Amino acid sequence: MANTPGYTLRLGHLRRSRRFHTERLYVNINFQQNWDQIAPVDVPDVLYDTFDNILNDLGNLVGCQPNDFVRFSVSHPGLKTPAWIPFQPWRDVRPNHILDPLARILKPTKNLKWMNV
């Protein structure tokens, strides 16, 4: 488990597929940031920086190599559908690759409530 300001990463179980030569790792991210104290104009930058830190921590914890192909699925009870981020080389993954699909899903869902857990 990695603790950094604003969130906690908890690695879940790892599943391997011999057939497809892939591994699936579940990661739970709990946010502790107090979003009420962040000015609305600063939220995009704070989100970008937070997800940049998450990706760095995750890459270090898992030992991602630049040529590893990764994809992400982001789910939350308040989302109607998870956000899927397609396979791409780890070296190309940036926070906006996760945040942009989330924004498309959240745009019509204005009643999602962010909870401090």
Could you characterize the architecture of this molecule?
Helix content is 27%, strand content 32%. The longest helix is centred in the middle third of the chain and has 20 residues, at 43-62. A 3-stranded antiparallel sheet has the order 1-2-3, with helices on one face. The chain starts with a strand and ends in an 11-residue tail after the last helix. It has helices spanning 43-62, 95-106, and strands spanning 2-4, 7-17, 22-31, 69-74, 83-89. The model has no long low-confidence stretch (mean pLDDT 82). Helix 1 crosses helix 2 (95-106). The chain has one domain. A hairpin with an 8-residue loop joins strand 4 and strand 5 (83-89). With 117 residues, it is α+β, with helices and mostly antiparallel strands.
Overview in brief:
By secondary structure, this protein is α+β, with helices and mostly antiparallel strands.
Strand content: 25-35%
Count helical runs.
2
Q: Structural class, from secondary structure content?
A: alpha+beta
Most strands sheet? 3 strands, antiparallel
Strand order of the largest sheet: 1-2-3
**Tally of discrete structural domains:** 1
Average pLDDT, to the nearest integer? 82
- Report helical residue fraction: 25-40%
Note the run of SSEs as H and E. EEEHEEH
- Any idea what the radius of gyration is? 15 Å
Topology, element by element:
Elements: E1 2-4, E2 7-17, E3 22-31, H1 43-62, E4 69-74, E5 83-89, H2 95-106
Q: What distinguishing features does this structure have?
A:
single chain, 117 residues, alpha+beta, 3-stranded antiparallel beta sheet, two-stranded antiparallel ribbon, 2 helices, 5 strands, 27% helix
